[in-house]
Amino acid sequence: MVASGLQRTLHRARATVASPSRRTRSAVVLGRLLGLAFVVCFLSGMYSHFLQQPLPWMVFPTKPVWLYQVSQGVHVTAGIACFPLLLGKLHAVFPELFQSPPVRSPLHLLERASIALFVAASLVEITIGLLNTYQLYAWFPFSFRRLHFVLSFVIIGSLALHIAVKLPIIARYWRRDGSDPAEPRPSDPVGPDAPGTAVRPGGVTGRLSHWVDREPQPLEGASDDRSAALGRRGFFATIAVATGALILFTAGQSFSILRPLAFFAPRLPGTGPQGLPVNHTAASAGVVEAASADDWSLEVRYGERSATFSRAELEALPQVEETIPLACVEGWSQSARWRGVRMRDLLTHVDAPADATIRVRSLQQRSQYTVMIMPSEFVLDDATLVALELDGQVLDLDHGYPARIICSSRPGVLQTKWLSSIEVIA
Ligand SMILES: Nc1nc2c(c(=O)[nH]1)N[C@H]1C(S)=C(S)[C@@H](COP(=O)(O)O)O[C@H]1N2
Ligand SMILES: [Mo]
Question: Among the atoms of ligand 1, which is closest to the Cα of residue 329?
Answer without folding.
Answer: 14
